[in-house]
Automatic annotation (TrEMBL):
Keywords: Coiled coil, DNA-binding, Restriction system. One of its GO terms (biological process) is DNA restriction-modification system. The keyword Secreted does not apply. One of its GO terms (molecular function) is DNA binding. This is Type I restriction enzyme, S subunit. SUPFAM superfamilies: DNA methylase specificity domain. Residues 455-482 form a coiled coil. Belongs to the type-I restriction system S methylase family. Residues 8-176, 360-470 form the Type I restriction modification DNA specificity domain. It comes from the Bacteria. InterPro entries: Restrct_endonuc_typeI_TRD (IPR000055), Restrct_endonuc_typeI_TRD_sf (IPR044946), Type-I_RE_S_subunit (IPR051212).
Amino acid sequence: MPYQLLQGWEWVRFGNIAQHNSGKTLDKGRNTGKLRDYITTSNLYWGYFELENIRQMPIRDDELEKCTAKKGDLLICEGGEAGRASVWFYDNEVCFQNHIHRARFYRHVDPYFVYRFFEKLNATGEINQHRKGVGISNMSSKALASIVFPFPPLPEQRRIVGRIDQLMARCDELERLRGEREQKRRIVHITALKRLLDAVSSSPRRSGGSGYADEAFTNTWQFITRHFSELYSVKENVTELRRAILQLAVMGRLVPQDPNDPPASELLKAIEAEKQQLVKEGKIKVAKPLPAIKLEEVLYELPEGWEWVRFFTVNTVKSELVLAKEYPFEKQIAPDSIEKGSGRILFHRTVEESGATGPNNRFYEGQILYSKIRPSLNKAVIAPYSGLCSADMYPIVSHVNVEFMLKVILSETFLEQVRQAENRVKMPKLNLESLGLFLIPLPPLSEQQCIVAKVDQLMALCDTLESQIDAASNKQAALLNALMAQV
């Protein structure tokens, strides 16, 4: 016996307290009788039924006794998530198919008490002892009948059910209140970050100043710092903080400008000279002239020393298609390998492991790999090695600090232009023409390096915040498990 029971309780097997059987098998070629509604495992969930998509099949009158559920019967999934159960609480009867067990209890058994016991088996994982199969499991009639569970007198069953229902209602209310609190916290946080970014857009920092910030920016930032621990106790807000950090970075608000830095205009001259040399060496083709940036295109005012430039002014897409099947042991990266919006690779694999055989682009260490399919997912990464990438990705050579350029690509400044480009086409795919015309905020080279260092520092802080949230959640779960172990 699993543990000692209270006086008046008994250990029983499920088969001793209920008559149970599975339902009607669907066989279009052999089924006869009147068309009747029936439910499947897709209609049966923990504690409730989803009855919007009820099916019908022919069922004879003499089969109804075996495959009809009435109010108070416990219905249990035989397949799928085997053991998933709910009491049929409707006044009308319903037929059920063969992948559902119907348990009709003998006297002195409250079906809701048994249902709660099945919930307990599922919550603790004990239910797996009665399942067979990997992936899609099943629970045979024999396995169901053999389940051992504690059986109190009927009045106590009802008191237990009433108490559980009462506590579950309180849990639901606590969950509702927690959700409302987190939603309010999220709204406050998003509003504060929006005010922060709006303040930056209207009043950029100027070189030679003393860390100038307008009153709106200062007040909003002070509000965030005062309520930091409360605002960043949920992961959703940390995600928003990461986005705000990137946006502040590309707007020139994370690090102070140094008036002694050569302006971005000087950097552009050096880039143009570099590109002309690469053309002479035959490493790149002569690029088409890019249209001048009009005043109405400018997204926001930049600090002094910065410049708005077209994407292809400071970047070059290098396409070098090869047949993947000829390079089975090369490293291979595809959009599914890259985490959305973070610039991180999720996993590493070879061409052979990826199953790719057709055209792939060759890429080289240090290039930016950018997914042109569903680009609003913002999948981009700096290649940590050379290899092949999906033809759905652009290998990009950046003529500025590559880590800074990746942060621009991951920022809202870039993403908003992606969304606008997506809206102009039927397929969510970013073509080279659109990409090349995107606007990029370009600071002096030395400031790019400072921005990268600051962003990395703040992203590490975000990693710490998320780890603390996970640790707090794990601690709460451990305390709850310890409490339940004493019950």
